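hey m, so remember when u said the tokens were messed up on ur end? i reran from scratch. heres the input so u can diff it against urs
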Amino acid sequence: MVWADLVLRDGAVLTMNTVQPYAEAIALKNDKILKVGKNEAIDRLIGNNTKVINLNGRVVVPGFIDTHVHLADYGRLLAWVDLKAVTSIEEIKKRVGQRVQKVPNGRWILGRGWNDANLAETRFPTLLDLDDVSPDNPVVLYHQCGRLCVVNSVALKQAGVTRKTKSPLGGKIEKDKETRFLTGVLQGNATDLVWKKIPEPCEEEVLEGARSASEKLVETGITSVHWIICSLTELKSIQRLHAQDELPLRIYLVIPVSLLDDALSLGIQKKFNNNMFRIGGFEIFVDGSLSAKTASLIEPYTDEPANEGQLLHTQKETVAFMNKMKKTTFQIVIHAMGDRALDVALNAIEETSKGSPINKDRIRLEQAAVFNIDLIERTRKHGLIVSVQPPVIESEFSMWSAIDRLNPKRARWLYPLKTLTKKGILVVGGSDCPMEPESPLFGIQATVMRESFPEERLTPKEALRLYTVNAAYSSFEENLKGSISPGKLADLTVLSHDPLKVPHNKIQDIEVEMTIVGGKITHSKIYHP
């Protein structure tokens, strides 16, 4: 008789397995799912050393998979001074002063989250406030809205910003109305003047940040992430993370194609092929972003008639990258947000396929946003995967004013998730964390509560698939994860309520009460051995 190591019983199990959609209990052995079924059947697998957790009606779903996370950036952000709850400038000064005492002289101090509306002084902090507590360390503190910050004198000096520096297009270097001295407040594109001078994190900082970020992610029920790599430093750090085997979740790496040769020289093709760490794909960037108006469009931005965005790579260059990729075992990921960029990507895909089936390659269109009927049909025809970040959708409409910038006709086909799903196109979900909230439940709610063009809303079950079975398929791991079935990896998320049954506007409020990765409890509010 094979006894289970861990049994979860008396729960409501949403397996996402069409053969056995619902169950009451699950038995786990080593890092795999041993059996799924009714309480009585699973109870027979309980031995003397089996841990048993009574769920008392709590809901179990497959471990969430986030298909687009900037893990190093998120870890870096977690190290910043948290100012979200501060209620006075004096409190800001206190927190900055405390950080100054902990870091070497000259190291940059970064913070985020302050809001002048919440401050007792009812004003912005200034460089004089920051100079008072940090005369030697450069300080940058970002407003809650993001594109506004206050810096101290040391930061301005290192950035070369003086009273004679002109405000950049789309930004403002604020000066006192009476004295004309710099206040330390930078707005819009002026924030980039200082940001560009902040040193990139070293390998040790990337390692520490990845550990911190991973711990935060498992608290949201995430058991696997597709880590979007941004630098060679991150790639080198990953070798150490893999060797140390310290992260509490599974990693699928997506690397810029510009680092392909570096990655191959590090021997990654041989080193990272297990269930915890995998080199997954390489990403070709065809265009930029909608928020920066660098996403490449067929017609100009409505509010900027001279701007059609920017193609970062032509069709010929994209084809060359794809042909190079086809000589490896890695997945092809193509970042294309605008409709012109999607057209270029699809042309390149069609050119390199030469009549052979494309869907077996599982090519991903990453952050694909501005579609039209023709682009949707071509995407369906070639069996491509569309990778989106649901939290971004409402941001594009509410904060970026997509309807005004694209016009209503084009905006109608911005992230058409329901249409894509009805066409049989596989859509997967990520967070784009730390740019957007990391919670999959937040992302699920965003897709079912969509306000702009509500005909493109998904049902809760369709939205749940984005983070489970669909996500697993997108990384060639559908036989390992994504649903709760015997033989698959024991990656599970325990929720306080059923996301398919609660009011749609309450999905993001569901508590993640336990996260299990490979049979190990990595986060728990209900079980403490």
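this time it looks ok to me. The mean pLDDT is 93. if urs says something different then somethings off w ur setup not the seq
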